[in-house]
Amino acid sequence: MSMSLDGFVSDANDRKDWIFNTGDEESSSWSVGKIKEAGMIIMGRKSFEQMAPYWPTATGPFAEPMNTIPKGVFTQNGFKGLGALQTTDEAKTTSADTWTNAKIFSGDLASEIRDLKAEPGKPIVAIGGAGFIQNLIATGFIDEFHLAIHPVALGSGLPIFNGQTMPLYLKLADVKVFPKGTVVHTYHT
User: Fold this and answer.
1) Least reliable range by pLDDT among 83-87, 107-111, 159-163
2) With a threshold of 0.85, does the pTM exceed it?
3) Domain span holding position 135
4) Which pairing describes strands 103-105 and 171-177: parallel, antiparallel, or unpaired?
5) 136 in a domain, yes or no?
């Protein structure tokens, strides 16, 4: 999760453009590597609906893992899927498959995550908005946090650690510093 120095994952208007202004090639490469480790990428419905039309025609280092790794969508309000996504050529249609065939989870979040974690395979990587991540944190089923702290203070915005009813104690496992000042802290629970 990318965060500002003052703990926000997006500004007060839900914009995240500051991430691109403070990132660099090395931090981007590290992020791509972490995503490539995933057996499934999970996110909330809102993030999924925003990302799904973009990625099948996207280029760049994130496009390949974002289009080939299976997706899981968590929703409390129901979701019928996307149907066919607009693509520009046949090769891109294949890229849309993991989006159009995403697994929909609409039950209790903690139960769904527990069941997913019990399945064999590679790690599950969660991406997306503050609300989904807050709910995921509340389940207590996150094994590892990668918090990319960007050298920017937003003053206000959306945090992911507010609303905790109990302290969340984490064990620092690794720290990576990147050229433009982003620092990734990896914590285990």
Assistant:
1) 83-87
2) yes
3) 2-161+168-184
4) unpaired
5) yes
Within-domain flag for 189: no
Q: Which two tokens stand for residue 76?
A: 């409390």
Residue with tokens 């799904």: 52
User: Using CA atoms in the order 86, 74, 29, 148, what is the torsion angle rounded to 10 degrees?
Assistant: 140
Cα–Cα–Cα angle for 143, 148, 152, rounded to 5 degrees = 150
pLDDT tens for 153-178 read 999 999 999 888 889 999 999 999 99
Name the one residue in this structure whose structure tokens are 């500051």: 18
185: helix, strand or coil = strand
For the chain, what is the domain count? Answer: 1
Whole-number Å distance between alpha carbons of 75 and 107: 8
